[in-house]
Amino acid sequence: MARLNVKPTRMVLTKLKVQLRVAIKGHKLMKDKRDELMRIFLEQARAIKVLREEIEPQLEEVYQSFALARGEMNPEVLEESLMYPKNRVTLTAKTKNVMSVDVPAFTFHHDSTETGNVYPYGFATTSGALDQSIAKLTALFPQLMKLAEMEKEAMLLADEIEKTRRRVNALEYVKIPAYEETIKYIRMKLAEEERGNQTRLMKVKDMMVAEQIELERARTAKMLEEAKAGAF
Amino acid sequence: MQASNLRSLQKGSGGLMSKIGIIGDADSVLGFKAFGLEAHVCDDAEKAARILRDIVREDYGIIFITERYYKELEEDITKYAELTLPAIIAIPGSDGSYGIGLSNVKYAVEKAVGADILFGDK
């Protein structure tokens, strides 16, 4: 495993220990974030699937009745009837925060829900198929908005999950092992130095003791010599 | 330069009235006009791409694109994917569904989970 390129000193060791602690804490938090994001996301994705499967056939029906209307009506008249929207939809987009991801929140309302008349034209020149398709589309509209909001949210969440997962993995498999490895290395290096010092000291001490002994011997030898000389 | 543009766009889009746009062929777009959606009619992918490029910088909240063009514009759309707004959403056009909408969700699941765990049975 890759060891960090640092000097093996006590100072660095202390710093690394702190960093390792932070990394472990961060890893745990990040993991929790990922799990929670994942839960929200999967819930959302399931709901989207259901909603989409509901909307798509209905939308196709709408297109079919529009095709009918197109067949029954003169294209200019058709174009003209839809030219001025009566049932104008206004959309307010806000953002909400889901696990630190900004996702859109849409609220919308139809202008004409109060009057109940959703048709932007008179009935005289238009075909019944057109009425039908407009009615269907009106009914479908809230779901479409919901779908848009949910899909966008899901996409953004998926992005964030991917990022978070990468961070978790980077911490788990690269950063934390590297810190641990380096800390171990510095510890061993310091212990080795310590041992080196110890032996050096022992050696010096031995030398000093040997010197003392030598001196002592010389002294006693001298004293013996003097005693012998004095006896005669 | 583009990134900074996009960022300012993102900042400016909080809690205001937004437009809803739809890009597609004339047949698909027609009905949505009745709701006051900004309908952008196009008949080839190139034009659709140009329209998308233009309107993505305006204050749209949602841009619907018919699946036929969504498929063609995939690359451009991924560029805008990280923006909170607009939400660019594929809907089936009058030429029927290609299943792109669902495959988008599937793709997102794969991206997030690493494997497809929702649609595997299909």
User: How many H/I helices of chain B?
Assistant: 6
End-to-end C-alpha gap of chain A: 81 Å
User: What is the CATH architecture term of the domain at 10-84 and 125-182 in chain A?
Assistant: Orthogonal Bundle
The gyration radius over C-alpha positions of chain A equals 42 Å
Number of domains of chain B: 1
Structural class of chain B: alpha/beta
The low-confidence parts of chain B are 1-14
Task: Name the overall outline of chain B.
Answer: globular
Instruction: Order the strands across the largest sheet of chain B as they lie in space.
Output: 2-1-3-4
CATH superfamily of chain B: ATPase, V1 complex, subunit F
Record field, number of beta strands of chain B:
4
* Terminus-to-terminus distance of chain B: 43 Å
Mean pLDDT metric of chain A: 88
**Biggest interchain interface, per-side counts:** A-B, 62 and 47 residues
CATH topology of the domain at 10-84 and 125-182 in chain A: Helix Hairpins
The H/E string of chain A reads HHEEH
**Main sheet attributes: strand count, strand direction, barrel closure of chain A:** 2 strands, antiparallel
Q: Give, in spatial order, the strands making up the sheet with the most strands of chain A.
A: 1-2
Our Rg estimate of chain B from Cα atoms comes to 15 Å
> Which parts of chain A are unreliable, with pLDDT below 50 for 5 consecutive residues or more?
none
Mean pLDDT of chain B: 80
Summarize the structure.
The complex is a heterodimer of chains A (232) and B (122). Chain A is mostly helical and 232 residues long. Chain A has 3 helices and 2 strands; from the N terminus they run ααββα.
